[in-house]
Write a structure and sequence with these properties.
This protein is mainly alpha-helical. Among the domains are: about 30-240 and about 520-530, Serine Threonine Protein Phosphatase 5, Tetratricopeptide repeat, CATH 1.25.40.390; about 385-480, Four Helix Bundle (Hemerythrin (Met), subunit A), CATH 1.20.120. It is built from 18 helices and twelve strands. The strands form six sheets. Strands 1-5 form a two-stranded antiparallel sheet. Strands 2-3 form a two-stranded antiparallel ribbon. The longest helix is centred in the first third of the chain and has 25 residues, at about 85-110. It comes from uncultured Dysgonomonas sp. This is SusD/RagB family nutrient-binding outer membrane lipoprotein. Pfam families: SusD-like_2 (PF12771).
């Protein structure tokens, strides 16, 4: 059962990170030096800031989705994110100035009074946040962070921060399970994720540990007691359950605006930021125009009308000449260098759908989007039950644990479809029928049976990638550590070297020029204006295409 979010503060503009937290939390004379801690306000604020940092709007979630080839963004065309990109420094600042600082304040003020549920939640979220920052940037300040006597903190090695995260998780689960703690104050509605349910937090804590162990399975020697940690977790078998997804639900409220940021941008404001990657679309549709190696060729995914909404009707011409159109789906290519990639398609381009941002379910009738086509109710996913199942499938397939990888894959697909149905029910639209789910799952498992060991891993990771649409951080990590899913490569289209447009017109040719694709960025630049320029102990990376993070083997 998901926890419904009730915001305790007004959402301020996503275009600025300069606003002080004092007006929101009213607990800090200085947001970096809490003086009178109100645990409930600190918890709600820190959870919300963490959500901002990992999500959409003017944060990493927007442009990182182009790195994972879920979306095509003009701002990050051809891996073009810069050292001064708002998305980088906004997320970096929110992690450091707000979330991590407030987690520390919760721990500092909760422990003396024995309010260990608060302390355990804060330690769990601090460990998760640190691990996500390592996954994105690699070496970052940790041991010298939040020390008022150190103005220029040095970066710690990424492997040492991961080990510290494991220690925090162990301390957090001990706090959450402490039966002798006073716990005079207990979280409730101030905890957006689990409403203060300590048993759910313990299961999430264990699932985060499993995630970090999975991500370091090729770097075991860098993690203290890697094998014992995994064995103990598997033996205890106390992970998140169905319906206990670690996620943040946006609501339909408009004053203050609590709708999903992508719904506000793409539907209410009719922006054109989120072009959906034709490569991603074709994988879900089972097409091979732009990926002749599609592992799901010939299989149509029943999640398609929940993921994508086509504004065009059958037979309707687009506003401008198109780069890519298949049926009523219209978009542009990654690294698109054709003549039709910049025309106005605001009322023609396909939009992210109901599952992604609380937008519209695609019933095939088309129509331009507006604030009334959907309600903005959808979750930002961090760790879902279906991702957990895919994690277990990978561990089983690679021999790290015993278990039936194929059955775990099936459970992951079934859980992903169930999650889509949960959002569909919120939007009061038809759900995916069990028969359709079973037909799809059976077809995927048939591909799995016929695949090599490498092909089996590709299928597991590609299904996980599909399930993580619009939550790109883990997909970004999965690709770097495994090489899956295989990303868009013009050499693998039916017209090698070019993007292929299936719907040809006099001014929309089949052959779409693609710029030479840049080297894949294996970590992010540090933000120049808010870190490198101000901290003499931090050096900028010279080449983000090199392997920089310890688990990137």
């Amino acid at each position: 059962m998901k926890t419904r979010i009730k915001f305790l503060f007004i959402i301020f503009t996503l275009l600025s990170v300069t606003s002080c937290t004092k007006d929101w939390l009213d607990v800090n004379d200085n947001p970096n030096s809490p003086t009178v801690a109100e645990l409930s306000k600190l918890l709600s604020g820190s959870e919300r800031y963490m959500t901002y940092a990992l999500g959409q709007g003017n944060f990493l979630g927007n442009n990182l989705s182009s790195y994972t080839h879920h979306l095509v963004s003009r701002e990050v065309q051809n891996y073009g994110m810069t050292t001064t990109a708002n998305n980088i420094y906004n997320s970096w600042n929110y992690f450091y100035i707000y979330s991590l600082t407030d987690f520390d304040a919760i721990i500092k003020n909760a422990e003396p009074d024995g309010n260990l549920i608060y302390a355990g939640i804060a330690k769990t979220l601090k460990a998760y946040t640190l691990s996500m920052m390592v996954d994105l940037w690699g070496d970052i300040p940790y041991t010298e962070f939040n020390n008022p006597d150190i103005k220029a903190p040095k970066a710690d090695k990424s492997s040492s921060i991961y080990n510290a995260a494991f220690d925090l998780l162990e301390a957090g689960v001990a706090d959450l399970g402490n039966k002798d703690a006073a716990n005079l104050l207990k979280p409730g509605t101030d905890d957006f994720f689990y409403g203060g349910d300590k048993d759910k937090w313990i299961r999430l804590n264990n699932t985060i540990k499993l995630k970090l162990l999975l991500q370091t399975r090729k770097a075991k020697s860098d993690i203290t007691d890697w094998q014992k940690r995994l064995s103990d977790l598997i033996t205890a078998n106390n992970f998140i359950k169905s319906g206990e997804d670690f996620e943040f639900w946006y609501t339909a409220k408009t004053s203050p605006d609590e709708r999903h940021p992508a719904f506000v941008a793409e539907y209410a404001n009719k922006s054109t930021t989120h072009y959906i990657s034709p490569f991603f679309y074709e994988i879900m549709k089972g097409l091979t125009y732009n990926n002749t190696k599609n592992p799901f060729a010939g299989i149509t995914d029943p999640r398609v009308p929940y993921y994508f909404y086509n504004q065009l009707k059958t037979g309707q011409a687009s506003q401008s000449n198109h780069s890519y159109r298949e049926g009523n789906f219209l978009s542009i290519f990654f690294a698109d260098n054709g003549s039709n990639n910049a025309g106005d398609q605001s009322s023609s381009m396909s939009k992210v759908g109901i599952y992604v941002c609380g937008g519209k379910y695609d019933d095939g009738n088309g129509g331009a989007v507006s604030a009334d086509t959907g309600n903005g109710v959808a979750p930002l996913k961090f760790i879902t039950f279906h991702s957990f199942k895919f994690m277990m499938a990978e561990l089983a397939l690679t021999g790290e644990i015993s278990g039936d990888a194929k059955n775990l894959l099936k459970e992951g697909i079934d859980a992903s479809i169930a999650h889509v149905n949960t959002v569909a029910e919120e939007g009061k639209v038809t759900t995916i029928a069990t028969a359709d789910r079973n037909t799809f799952t059976t077809a995927v498992l048939g591909k799995y049976d016929a695949a090599s060991e490498a092909g089996k891993l590709e299928i597991i990771l590609t299904q996980k990638w599909i399930g993580n649409f619009f939550s790109p951080e883990d997909a970004y990590t999965d690709y770097r550590r495994t090489g899956y899913p295989v990303l868009f490569n013009p050499a693998n289209t039916t017209d090698p070297g070019f993007g292929v447009n299936p719907t040809v017109t006099a001014l929309s040719p089949a052959r779409v020029p693609i710029s030479p694709i840049a080297s894949f960025p294996r970590s992010l630049y540090y933000p120049a204006t808010t870190e490198i320029d101000l901290n003499p102990n931090m050096d900028q990376k010279t080449d983000v295409s090199v392997k920089f993070i310890f688990w990137d083997k």
